From TrEMBL, chain A:
Keywords: Signal, Transport
GO molecular function, a single term: peptide transmembrane transporter activity
GO biological process: peptide transport
GO cellular component assignments: ATP-binding cassette (ABC) transporter complex; outer membrane-bounded periplasmic space
Domain called Solute-binding protein family: residue spans: 70-428
InterPro entries xrefs: Peptide/Ni-bd, SBP_5, SBP_5_dom
Signal sequence range: 1-22
Name under which the protein is recorded: ABC transporter substrate-binding protein
Pfam families tied to this protein: SBP_bac_5
Family membership noted in the UniProt record: Belongs to the bacterial solute-binding protein 5 family.
TrEMBL record, chain B:
Residues annotated as transmembrane: 12-34, 99-123, 135-163, 183-205, 240-263, 285-306
Main location (coarse class): membrane
UniProt keyword annotation of Cell membrane present: yes
Protein name (database record): Peptide ABC transporter permease
Xref: Gene3D superfamilies: MetI-like
A cellular-component GO term for this protein: plasma membrane
Domain ABC transmembrane type-1: 99-310
Record's keyword terms, sorted: Cell membrane, Membrane, Transmembrane, Transmembrane helix, Transport
Compartment(s): Cell membrane
A GO biological-process term: transmembrane transport
Pfam families per UniProt: BPD_transp_1 (PF00528), BPD_transp_1_N (PF19300)
Keyword Translocase: no
Family according to the record: Belongs to the binding-protein-dependent transport system permease family. OppBC subfamily.
Amino acid sequence: MKRIVNPIAAVAFATTSTFAIAQTPPNVLVVGQIAEPQSLDPHAVTAVNDFRILVNLYDGLVRYADGTLEVEPSLAESWDISDDGTVYKFQLRDDVEFHDGTPFDAEAVVFNFERMLDEDHPYYDTGPFPLAFYFSQIDTVEATAEHEVTFTLNEPFAPFLSNLAYPTGLLISPQAVREHGENIGRHPVGTGAYQFEEWESNSRVVLTRNNDYWDGAPDLEAVVFRPITDANTRVAEMRSGGIDMMVEVPPDNVSMFKEDPMFQVYEQAGPHVWFVILNMRNELLQDKRVRQALNYAVDKEALVNDVLQGTATVADSPIAPAFNWAYNDELDGYPYNPDRARELLEEAGAVGEELTFYVTEGGSGMLDPINMGTAIQANLESVGLDISIETYEWNTFLGRVNAGLEGEADMAEMAWMTNDPDTLPFLALRSDAMPDEGGFNSGYYSNADVDKLLEQARTSTSQEERARLYKEAQAIIVEDAPWIFVANWQQNAVATDRVENFHLQPSFLLQLRDVRKP
Amino acid sequence: MATPLWRYVGKRLLLLIPVLFGLSLIVFFIMALIPGDPAQAILGSYATPENVARLNAQLGLDKSLPQQYLTWLGNIFQGDFGRSYNQNREVISIIAERFGATLILAGTALVLCSIFGLLAGIISASRQYGLVDKAITLIVLIGISMPAFWLGLLMIMLFAVEWRLLPASGMFSIYGGGDLPDLIRHLILPAGTLAFIATGVIARLTRASMLEVLRQDFIRTARAKGVNERRVIYRHAFKAALVSIVPVIGIQAGFVLGGAVYIETVFQWPGMGSMLVNAISTRDLLLVQGGVLVIAAAYVLINLAADVVQFILDPRVTA
């Protein structure tokens, strides 16, 4: 078996003690991941687990500013947006090279987007590119100068910049794509703070410092990502000194790490919403009083504190508070009030009615779905409803729920993580987003006012204007209660006390550029 | 004797073809029956019917099932196992990377459980109903009834977290290491756990066959002739009992290959088991097919080897 980069091996030999287990060497950060990445081609992957590696290897035209979900310049120094919101002109940095030494220029940007979007592009077959629809509004992308690239959209689309900051917008070396073809996912070449060194299947992905990084070379010599699928094993590796940092700490273990001075626990709320879809084609649930009663009946505080053990906060809107500029913090939501719930149910004549509740066993962003499902069931039964749970494995569950709940179930768990306040309500709460039209409105919520506000917010280029529209839409949606709003997940991570200058990002991406581990 | 043996081996190898063919058919259609498809697994929350249909078309999954199966079968004959939908890599190169790790783990476990199983069985049989027999029976029963993943986690907590004697997971150290001693340090916990669980059946069976043999006339004769008891047990009785034990070791090979699935997941061993678990949950059909075929072929070949050994040991077995 090959050794990883020589400097690391040298350090390791120098530090190997007489103990069987040595600590991880200085200036090398070993991160315990939840799974092996599928690929390191930013356009081919969909999982947060893979994005955590990618953002350290690649840059995009823009990025999320540290600690926020607001966009700031990255490989593009500046940009102009036409008044009608359809033409975006980016001025690119002229001092950047890919890790393979080829220059980063406008042609490279054009190559990246055409490869993803144009079926006739010679490297389109190195896909598929499942999230290419993030950029489906792009009509043309042109190199209008050596370091100027111009996107023309087929309609004004306000989330465009924030989609560019999403990992699907990271930029890969065209030369590397030509060289490696469909195997590019194992030979990633970007412009990022770290460059790819080695990927040993199911053991490790090694990145080393990019000494020429345009935004200042990182301090660490190398970052090693280890896939450790079993959460208990991941915790054991953390405690036995085999890794320096782990993400997605199981709620059961968070307090143990918090009490131990050897470890630092990081928590960060993100753009995540956990909710229960209510099927509005069910006669009972067409009554707003019943939907509001369901919201009052669920003890969200108890769910986030007891079931999720403080790894989430109570949600009260379809837009997560992490989108601080768009989140409406003036709404009262539905604080736990079983008496009010019973009253509303009695008024609506719904006491004793039976509802079917789809629950999943696991899945991306679903937290602890079975225990949450049974806790919600208990809450609803205590106000006089009869809830029967049907549990499905995640992929099966998605197939059933995304096809629409009509004739299947009355309620279903769901969770979304998005990068723009537009995404979730636009895809899951609009009249034109019904499942048979390719949308995710599986509960068939429909309100013409909400539709209009969301359309306006999506085409406006002023953030202030957008914020006002989203806040207005939230007020209507919360009053209508098409979902039970339950939780906003707090991402967490644990690191040893040797790790410095690390913090989590609300984007849920793992930025390691500034981390030190002397 | 050589001729009928080779004919027997040849016949068994030919039988491998229909076995693998039948198995591939079963795996293919079971995978097809599980709800959800690769496109859905890849797209996750973004799996609208429209996106799923587009991605399935790109993956070549929009054809009918028999058509997909025939395409796959045709490619197999040209040595092409297809590409993993999820990883977009050749199935054969993924398996090649993983198979060695599984063989090391399962092979070590098989050797360990054979040695300990035989020893425990012999000692038990020679002290039937004695204290040692009872103690061994108890330990062996604990092994048989303990869930593999739970025992694995327990071992990790003790040896890696509490005592810091052995690494918690993986096959090689992340920095330095990479040599044989490093591999052995990483192998002790997973192989030991797997062996502990697989030892029981061999030990119980060895004990039973030894007891049966020890009651036979030739043993009484040997003892009457004044042959030393050690020699009676290890030379005469054990050799006779081995004939019925060897096929069980072959069957246990299947058990350790299968048990490796949990053990590999718990210990993050980079083998076929953890690969299959992931491939099934992401509906990565071709990877599941390739993996199952390779494991099945290994199982059949190990059993064939066990039969050959039995054939050599026991002249009564005819080919």
